[in-house]
Amino acid sequence: MRALSIRFDISPTEIQKHIEGIREWGINISYLKEKGYQLPETIDFLNARLIRSKIGNSLKLIPIIDSTNQYLLDSSSIKSGTVCISEHQTKGRGRRGRKWVSPFGKNLYFSMYWKLNSGIDSAVGLSIVIAVIIVEVLSTFGIKGVKLKWPNDLCYKDRKLAGILIESVNKESLVIGIGLNLLMKSTKEGISSPWTSLIEVADRSSLDRNELAIALINALYSELKYYELHGVRKFIKRWNQLDNYFGKKVILLIGENKIEGIEHGINEKGALLIKTSKGLENYISGEISLRGY
């Protein structure tokens, strides 16, 4: 403590306050007698220069931010494809206003601003497309077994691996937010639903966050252009091959209503198809959750 106090020319009390602040980011700094403060493991920092050298997009790397989505929503005069990425979000959010736990340097948190040539009314099924793209990128890293849960969750053995949040900026543009669990340990607090990390799925000791970020950004930029030309219909087969519930009995909850039947993937608008006693029905809006029997 004394050595840190001398080095940074601040009091031990101020040092302690800074340490507590860092712990709030999700970094579990420990204190060892006669050795001082210690990190539990090496942090693989995001490298803005490296990422920029391998993508064609404008990139904003902001280490500590409230929300990458919010940053782009509040920005003006930015180009389509601009990316905001962060080490830690203090107010990360998911669908339905849920908190997205974002410990420092553990996962990937980034958002992309996108301007649709035909306006946001043409963004039918976009979250489904994004989910497919992410799983396919993961497969290029040798990560297998990741499945999709309608409308846009990535899961491994029924535990959530990633989330997608799409928010509109105006009538022409939107922001696509992605949170992907990479290195979080299964003991992480603050998450109520079952979840997992790529480090567990891939069964390896490390993953290169920079290379994964580069691959995801490049794939999104390319596939979003393809999506604008062809819509969801060119992604239906790709989704159905990855759908965790395809051909299985499911319960679909819409408010107080329950729909039971056999899940049959999606249609050209990204709607969920369920074969019930009334025939093949589709569902696309409302407060919907999907649960396997």
What does this structure look like?
The structure is a single chain. Helix 5 crosses helix 7. A hairpin with a 2-residue loop joins strand 9 and strand 10. This protein has helices spanning 2-8, 12-24, 48-53, 68-74, 126-140, 198-201, 209-230, 236-242, and strands at residues 30-32, 36-38, 59-61, 64-65, 83-86, 88-89, 108-115, 147-149, 153-156, 159-168, 173-180, 249-254, 257-266, 272-276, 279-283, 288-292. The radius of gyration is 21 Å and the shape is globular. The longest helix is centred in the C-terminal third of the chain and has 22 residues, at 209-230. It has 293 residues and is of the alpha+beta class. It folds into 3 domains: 2-38, no CATH class; 48-240, Bira Bifunctional Protein, Domain 2 (BirA Bifunctional Protein, domain 2, 2-Layer Sandwich); 245-292, SH3 type barrels (Roll).
Radius of gyration based on Cα positions: 21 Å
The major sheet is characterized as: 7 strands, mixed
In total, how many domains does the architecture comprise?
Answer: 3
Whole-number mean pLDDT: 86
User: So, CATH architecture of the largest domain?
Assistant: 2-Layer Sandwich
How many helices? The count is 8
CATH topology of the largest domain: BirA Bifunctional Protein, domain 2
> Terminal Cα separation, in Å?
55 Å
Give the % helix.
25-40%
What structural class do helix, strand and pairing data support?
A: alpha+beta
CATH H-level superfamily of the largest domain: Bira Bifunctional Protein, Domain 2
Instruction: Count every beta strand, where a strand is a DSSP E run of 2 or more residues.
Output: 16
